[in-house]
Design goal:
Length: about 375
């Protein structure tokens, strides 16, 4: 063989191998970008944790949480019936583990929720004979609960959903037992008790269907009144329990601006988008609703059709465009669950359905929309 030809062949082979090797180094050294990386200069990206995740029993979900998110909120383990099921008997095991998880992973920790008409045990409102308690008794019980819980995590839980879902869709106050027994002062008192227990913690009001004009106006009135009373309210959480056609992006945007103009932080909380038909277009997130199972209301039991998946992606991107447009007003966006199988949407308002409302699927894979959100954040 001609020696020059052999040298030429060897040179070309060497260059080819070198190029492949260099390409692999570049590929291996390429930084993986997650949601929290892409959005780090815009707002916190958070997620609600269930007890399987808190205790690291669902290791695949935990891996996603650590990779993708920089804020966490307690889905259920900090609600009244979980922490104080009987008067004076506090159970902090799950809540302690939740807070420790957040601290170990350097996350912004949200406590949820101190005062809510739902998932609150009957004893809170009754005496030993089952009769409704007097105003002073309920105030004292409320004060003791808030003070005990917030004090325990003082300086560790950075923010609290103090009052949850106190306003109806028409803008009036919900006729809960708190309102019936104490009067509307219960809202002011809740914030004052929380502030006294941890003066440095951020305190929020949280509610659903906030894009409804009447509800938005009602919440705004309530916050303004609290402000005139010198009550510390740091932010308003707009629950993002959305459907494919409700609310409109424009309506949601108007509420963001309205709440920001109150000089409070605005957060998008409890974000998920149902792909399923609903018995009512403006269903909101009223947990007490319960409809009998109907097969036609569970059309995607065997998987979401491609066209529906694409429509869900467009819907998510429409709202993330909105959030990024108003990143000067929004401090946090929180998903209400990690993967589709975790979502409360599978069983509400009709038990036994299969929904696909979150960013990660039942196989713990990121849906294509995750990369699209990351790309959107990078192109802003």
């Amino acid at each position: 063989m001609n020696i020059k030809y052999l040298i030429s062949i060897l040179s070309i082979s060497f260059l080819f191998i070198l190029s492949v090797y260099s390409c692999n180094i570049e590929k291996n050294n390429k930084e993986v970008v997650y949601l929290k990386d892409a959005l780090k200069n815009d707002f916190y990206i958070g997620v609600a944790l269930n007890t399987n995740q808190i205790w690291n029993r669902d290791t695949s979900s935990v891996r996603i949480v650590k990779q993708q998110f920089n804020s966490i909120v307690a889905e259920n383990c900090m609600k009244t019936e979980e922490i104080q099921p009987k008067e004076g008997q506090f159970n902090f095991a799950n809540a302690d583990k939740f807070v420790k998880f957040g601290e170990q992973n350097k996350m912004f920790i949200i406590g949820h929720t101190l005062i809510w008409h739902s998932q609150c045990p009957d004893w809170f409102f009754e005496d030993k004979n089952g009769n409704e308690v007097f105003r002073e008794v309920l105030i004292e019980r409320m004060k003791n609960h808030i003070t005990t819980v917030v004090s325990r995590y003082k300086g560790r839980v950075k923010a609290w959903d103090v009052v949850n879902e106190a306003v109806l869709d028409d803008g009036s106050l919900r006729n809960s037992k708190f309102l019936k027994i104490i009067g509307e002062d219960y809202i002011r008192l809740a914030f004052e008790f929380a502030h006294a227990a941890d003066p440095e913690a951020e305190l929020y009001y949280n509610d659903y269907s906030m894009a409804l004009p009447e509800k938005c106006a009602g919440v705004a009135r309530m916050i303004k009144k609290l402000q005139t009373q010198q009550v510390k309210v740091d932010g308003i959480g707009m629950q993002g329990h959305l459907s494919m056609d409700f609310p409109t992006v424009d309506a949601f945007e108007k509420s963001i601006v309205t709440f920001y103009n109150l000089k409070t932080k605005v957060m998008i909380t409890e974000l998920d988008i149902t792909t399923l038909p609903t018995p009512s277009r403006q269903l909101g997130a009223e947990v007490s609703l319960n409809y009998e199972y109907q097969k036609e209301m569970n059309p995607y039991a065997n998987g979401l059709p491609e066209e529906k998946s694409e429509a869900l992606q467009r819907r998510y991107l429409d709202f993330f465009r909105l959030f990024l447009k108003h990143k000067d007003k929004i401090s946090r966006v929180t998903l209400w669950g990690v993967c589709d199988q975790d979502s409360w949407r599978n069983n509400w308002p009709m038990h036994g359905r299969t929904d696909y409302p979150l960013l990660f699927d039942r196989s713990y894979n990121a849906k294509p929309v995750v990369n699209e959100i990351i790309r959107l954040a990078g192109n802003k």
